[in-house]
Structure formats: C-alpha cells, structure tokens
C-alpha cells in the first residue's frame, strides 16, 4: 500500500496520540547540528510534530509528505513552515537545495529505498547530514508484541528494513554512515508510536492509540488484535506480564538513530 494511502487512512485523529517527544527532538537536533542561516528538510514529516518542535528550537525546516490529510493537519498547527506534497523518491526541489535533512519513523514506508536515498542526496548540498530515526527487524524481534500479536509482528518485521540494507542504500547514493545510536523506549515517552507502551501496556487498550499506529491499523487482523488484547489483559491482571516482557529483553535496542553525511 502506498505511503500516501497508508497515512490518509490513519491520518484522521492521528494527532490525538502522536506528538513530538522532548528527548527524541533533542537528539534529532544534536545529531543534525543545524545552523541558523541554513535550510533543512523533514522528509515524511506527517502532521509536522517534529518539524514544528525543531522549528521552535530555531531550525529552518521545510516539511514534505505524500499524505495530503497529514499535511492539512500540519498546516492547521503552523503556518510559519512551508508544507509541501512530495515523496522521498520525488522531492519537489532543485539540486543541492538543503543543508541537511531528517526522516523520522518513515523509511519503512518508502516505495524504493535506493531511489529515495539518491533523491535525498540530489537535494542536499555536499557534506550535508541526514539523520534517520527508525527501527530494524532485529529490534522488532525483541518486542513483547510478538507474544500477543504474532501474525501482525511477522508482517511488521517483514516490512522493517535491516540496518545493513539501509547503510548499503545510503552508501550507493553517495552517503557515508557517521553514527548509529540505539534508542530504548523510556517510561516518559510522549509520542505514542508503535512500541511506546513497552513499559505501559495499558495504552494499547485505547483504540485511539492503536489507530495512530500503522501496524495495528494496516497489518493486523482485528480478530488477532481482540484475542491479543484479551491475553494482554489476563497477563496484566494475573501478574505474569512483567515476566513475559522481560523474556523479550533486547540488547539491540528498540529504535535506531542513524546519521549519514553526503559527499
């Protein structure tokens, strides 16, 4: 399913549960290391949560997304940012327009990874940084979701992109990998994306939370969701959830920051 269709489908109400997390915003800022007189790209900006949060820190960002529904929401929140319709594979700007870019929880939806990196390389100036926040199949295999929603997770893990594949695509486009950093979900996480309830499973009983998570909305059989939630409720109530969660401890982290630099 095309990215635009995916997020047009879940775009309504998406912003009720999704907002910029302070820690993730700070890490994106630090890793991008933006300059005040430069212009940056947020590719796959969605409803603009991180675009706006970084803009409030002084970053001059332009948001690009293929979902008009998401962009409508972004425009309603801020008219100080230029929000444009576009795809990672087709960014509506001239060569070497931007001084850097970010992509937050979006690369697993790109239609063609290598073409996307080539396109991003085209619109970035030489030696520009490209900061990616994502997850890998290895990381997803350590989510306790696998115990409760196994079929959904098989599909999600299949869609996730291995770290080495991302690096190869970036390298082929002329980027160099400069930094990788695992991210562990914290108890005070403010952005209710996929595994945000790692330590607080109660959030997944809220249909609004699930609606804002593409795995539940697009990959899951609703009968499996009902059965999985029933089992989750039982294990929380009988005190076995923590044991199950701990059996999925993953040394590879839950999510991943990657920093690339153009040639």
How confident overall, as mean pLDDT? Answer: 93
User: How many individual domains?
Assistant: 1
Number of helices: 13
What kind of assembly state do the chains in view correspond to?
A: single chain
Strand content: 15-25%
CATH superfamily name?
Answer: Vaccinia Virus protein VP39
Derived structural class = alpha/beta
Order of helices and strands: HHEHEHEEHEHHHHEHHHHE
CATH architecture: 3-Layer(aba) Sandwich
Q: What this model shows, in words?
A:
The protein has 263 residues and is α/β, with parallel strands linked by helices. The protein has a single domain (3-261), classed as Rossmann fold (3-Layer(aba) Sandwich). It has helices at residues 3-10, 22-32, 49-55, 68-77, 113-123, 137-140, 145-148, 150-159, 163-172, 207-211, 214-219, 222-237, 241-247, and strands at residues 40-43, 61-65, 82-85, 98-104, 124-134, 176-183, 255-261. The protein has a seven-stranded mixed beta sheet, with helices on both faces. The longest helix is centred in the C-terminal third of the chain and has 16 residues, at 222-237. The mean pLDDT is 93.
Layout of secondary structure:
Layout: H1 3-10, H2 22-32, E1 40-43, H3 49-55, E2 61-65, H4 68-77, E3 82-85, E4 98-104, H5 113-123, E5 124-134, H6 137-140, H7 145-148, H8 150-159, H9 163-172, E6 176-183, H10 207-211, H11 214-219, H12 222-237, H13 241-247, E7 255-261
Parallel strand pairs: 1-2, 1-4, 2-3, 4-5
Antiparallel strand pairs: 5-7, 6-7
Helix pairs in contact: 5-9
């Amino acid at each position: 399913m095309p990215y635009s269709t995916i997020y047009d489908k879940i775009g309504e109400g998406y912003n009720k549960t999704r907002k910029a997390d302070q820690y993730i915003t700070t890490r994106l800022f630090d890793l991008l290391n933006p300059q005040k007189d430069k212009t940056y790209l947020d590719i796959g900006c969605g409803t603009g949560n991180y675009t706006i949060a970084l803009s409030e820190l002084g970053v001059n960002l332009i948001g690009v997304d293929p979902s008009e529904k998401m962009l409508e929401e972004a425009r309603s929140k801020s008219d100080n940012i230029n929000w444009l319709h576009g795809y990672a594979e087709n960014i509506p700007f001239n060569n070497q327009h931007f001084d850097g870019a970010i992509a937050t929880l979006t690369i697993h939806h790109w239609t063609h990874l290598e073409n996307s990196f080539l396109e991003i390389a085209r619109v970035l100036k030489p030696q520009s940084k490209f900061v990616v926040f994502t997850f890998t199949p290895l990381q997803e295999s350590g989510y306790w979701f696998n115990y409760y929603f196994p079929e959904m997770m098989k599909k999600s893990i299949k869609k996730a992109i291995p770290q080495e594949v991302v690096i190869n695509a970036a390298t082929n486009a002329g980027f160099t990998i400069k930094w990788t950093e695992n991210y562990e979900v914290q108890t005070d996480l403010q952005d209710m994306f996929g595994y945000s309830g790692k330590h607080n499973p109660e959030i997944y009983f809220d249909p609004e939370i699930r609606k804002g998570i593409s795995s539940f909305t697009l990959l899951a059989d609703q009968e499996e969701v009902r059965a999985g939630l029933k089992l989750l409720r039982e294990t929380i109530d009988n005190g076995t959830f923590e044991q199950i969660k701990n059996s999925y401890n993953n040394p590879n982290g839950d999510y991943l920051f990657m920093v690339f630099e153009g040639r």
